[in-house]
Amino acid sequence: MQLCLHPKVKVKMFSQSHFLCVLLIILVSFSFSFSSDPENPLVVHDLHRHHRTRRLQSPSAMDVTVNVDSFGAKGDGSDDSQAFTEAWKKACSSKSDVELVVPRNRVYQLKPMDFSGPCKSQVTLKIYGTIEASAKQSDYKDSRHWILFSNLTNFRVEGGGTIDGNGRKWWQSSCKVDDSHAVTFLGCNTLEVDNLKFRDAQKMHLSFESCVNVKASNLIVTAPGDSPNTDGIHVSGTQNIGINNCLIRTGDDCISIVSGSKTVRAEDITCGPGHGISIGSLGAGNSQAEVSDVMVSRANLMDTTNGLRIKTWQGGSGYATNIRFKNVVMANVSNPIIIDQHYCDQDKPCLEQDSAVEISNVLYENVKGTSASKVAVKFDCSKDFRCQEILLKDVNLKPLADETAQASCENVSLNRIGTVSPTCS
């Protein structure tokens, strides 16, 4: 039976079919318009990440995970050095980005280790558990380092775990030459150390040497206040480093910045007990030292033997310049502000010498709190190389007792802005 349709009905059906075809073409074109790669429609814009593009990875292209347990690590307090060595070799040789995992709830004991590069891809070391130093002094021999990361690029260490230097035995017979630094990064470029705990180092807890582009953040560094030479974070010959949101309580400098360091930023630092935040020492053994472009901001210092300190040896040369200390609060701090160009850390008196590391362009701004020492501001500068362009702006340091805080200023070109107390007469 032939069905006869009214002409208007035919036109209406044709219009609907035409509309569906056009709609289908638009949808297909629209889906392909989201592709960043016309050859691969799976490359899509991620609108929740500021319109960056992200390729959906096949399983073979995803990050590789290497677990130290897979190489025989026990995590029971026995020696796991060999397993870590093999795991590092595997991770460092991976052609894909790789995560090297140290599992949680275990204690991995290590002898001195050298995790060296360059690696073939980006490596992230995730420390969830605890890494502990061997307590056998014979394991260290002539090693200056317990854990050394060297010659690495785009390297990251994180995970919330703990690195335990097991240093108590060394503190009892402290020797500045023989003790090993706990963790050292040497010659690394583009480095991040985040969300870790360091404790009880034999000597320095965390040292950055000859590195470029470093971010150290969310770190907790602790050792007893009487533990010798246990600097928290040490910066040497390193450029463009940011130290942020760190709690440091040790037996020596919370942060020490020495020669060759440039563009150093330390912000949101809690320090104490310890020896405060130091630039130096510089110029030991008649050496040349250069430090510049240092900013310390939003720091809280409590119960430290020094506050903001610049220390140089007589006989040295070079400079420390363009240094800023801003927004610092102190509580029960001895020597809150000190420049010491006659630093002498040895048993016998140091010889009087003419040369010195030149100190210039130093700002102390909005520094407030209480001083545990009668002299709250001390500038002990060289008569041959006076401290130049030293500026105190809005500084208010009060004594703990019912006394008047004092300032001592020798051989310094000093300016003041705002309320400054105490001040040199």
TrEMBL record:
Catalytic machinery residues: 275
Keyword Cell wall biogenesis/degradation in annotation: yes
Primary location class: secreted
The name this protein goes by in its record: endo-polygalacturonase
GO molecular function terms noted in the UniProt entry: polygalacturonase activity
UniProt catalytic activity: (1,4-alpha-D-galacturonosyl)n+m + H2O = (1,4-alpha-D-galacturonosyl)n + (1,4-alpha-D-galacturonosyl)m
Keyword Membrane: no
TM segment ranges: none
Cellular location(s): Secreted, Cell wall
GO process terms (BP): anther dehiscence; carbohydrate metabolic process; cell wall modification involved in abscission; fruit dehiscence
Keywords: Cell wall, Cell wall biogenesis/degradation, Glycosidase, Hydrolase, Secreted, Signal
Origin superkingdom: Eukaryota
Family of the protein in this entry: Belongs to the glycosyl hydrolase 28 family.
Enzyme class of the recorded protein, top EC level: hydrolase
EC number: 3.2.1.15
Pfam families named among the record's database cross-references: Glyco_hydro_28 (PF00295)
